[in-house]
Design the sequence.
């Protein structure tokens, strides 16, 4: 992991990517946002994007599946890490322009980053923005 990438995932500097939706729009796939939420705690774990192929795979196989807009490929959460997210329920919002996956974590966590013990973090929202616009870990 490069130093800049390390700073992005572990640092305290706020460097929001306000260009993300432009990048998503240019991936060449029709996608919708998908929020991935823990079924029991209701904690938001991950935000991703889903196309028809990813949604069909998720519903058929019962695992959270998204479309990787950066790699332009199916992203079966857990396929490389073993940290699968078992799909309990799939919901759609009122305007049918976003999806909600309610999941049970099969392993230890849903995030690709690791905590200080080397375990996957429970979810991707592990830092908060403080009053000085810096990031600090959530305890």
Sequence:
């Amino acid at each position: 992991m490069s130093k800049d990438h390390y700073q992005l995932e572990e640092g305290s500097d706020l460097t929001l990517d306000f260009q993300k939706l432009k990048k998503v729009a240019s991936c060449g796939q029709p996608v919708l946002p998908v929020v991935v939420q823990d079924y029991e705690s209701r904690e938001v774990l991950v935000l991703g994007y889903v196309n028809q192929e990813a949604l069909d795979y998720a519903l058929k196989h019962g695992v959270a599946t998204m479309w990787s807009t950066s790699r332009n490929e199916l992203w079966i959460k857990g396929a490389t890490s073993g940290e699968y997210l078992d799909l309990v329920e799939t919901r759609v919002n009122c305007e049918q322009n976003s999806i909600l996956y309610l999941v049970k974590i099969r392993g230890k966590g849903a995030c690709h980053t690791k905590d200080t013990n080397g375990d996957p973090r429970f979810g991707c929202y592990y830092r908060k923005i403080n009053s000085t616009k810096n990031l600090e870990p959530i305890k």
Observations:
- DSSP finds three helices and eight strands in the chain.
- Strands lie at 32-38, 44-50, 65-68, 73-76, 85-92, 99-105, 127-129, 135-137.
- The first helix runs from residue 3 to 10.
